[in-house]
Amino acid sequence: MQVSVIIINYNTFQLTCEAVESIIKHTHGVSYEIIVVDNASTECDPGLFAERFPSIKLVRNPDNSGFAKGNNLGIQHSTGETILLFNSDAACLNDALTLTYQELKAEANLGLTTARLEYPDGRIQHSCGRFPSINLQLVELLRLQKLMSAEQRGTILQGAFFTYDKPLYPDWVWGTYFHIKREVIEKMPGGHLADDFFMYAEDLQWSYTVRKLGYTIKYVPEAHVMHHFSQSTKKEKRLNQGNMILQNEDIFLNREYGWATTKAYYLTKMANFLLMRGNPEHRQQMLQQYGKLLRGKPL
Prior knowledge:
Layout: E1 3-9, H1 13-26, E2 32-39, H2 47-52, E3 57-61, H3 67-76, E4 82-86, E5 90-92, H4 96-106, E6 110-118, E7 128-129, H5 134-141, H6 150-157, E8 172-173, E9 177-181, H7 182-187, H8 202-212, E10 216-227, H9 235-256, H10 259-275, H11 280-294
Parallel strand pairs: 1-2, 1-4, 2-3, 6-10
Antiparallel strand pairs: 4-9, 5-10, 6-9, 7-8
Pfam families: Glycos_transf_2
Protein name: Glycosyltransferase family 2 protein
Domain Glycosyltransferase 2-like: 4-119
């Protein structure tokens, strides 16, 4: 088996079915298995997945243990030489599995690949980024990016500065489509993906570990995947999600960078928000959040 696809389902039956159908429809160049891990959903009987797709492996998690632990549970039931973490709200638009698998096989030092992620209307999602960095914050603070060419900005700053129309070796990528060699996971602490975050920022931690192990990460623009990435989430829920992301990033930064560097990073972030143009409500909100993190206060 070349690719084991892990999909975590939590009350997203229809979306998960569409994700599975898209993989079956578009994947032709590799051998693969699909493992659906149901995280104690209450929406419907998870057995409906097995009825609809007899070829998949259904793993019933008795508890909703979160995204990372759910993926580790799925990996325990997998046999593939590579592991693809695939969001339940995503769908293949072409034979993405084959394209990213071929890249993993072509480069010995490549540990992780990802695809081009698009909104349903075709807009690009900025799924490749740089690790948090004081130097990069200072580049933006001093507006040094204005002295760079568009290509230099994309390569150096990544994120929203990158065009996503060519290959890139980013620092980290979203967990939406996370195609990783099994050998890399086996070299991680405990022989599994870090799972101390219930949800959010785990992909930052995983990518950081991949890089620490000496492997590279590659964005493959030919592999196209649609990702719903709900834009209709209520404001209060978006704020809670944002707080959870920042709180988990704070844990990551303090663990990997140390206390002093983390505080200095927050200061540069706040300076950037102070000079930011645009939505004053968002600017004030971010200043308050980073101010709390700087003082060691919970969000």
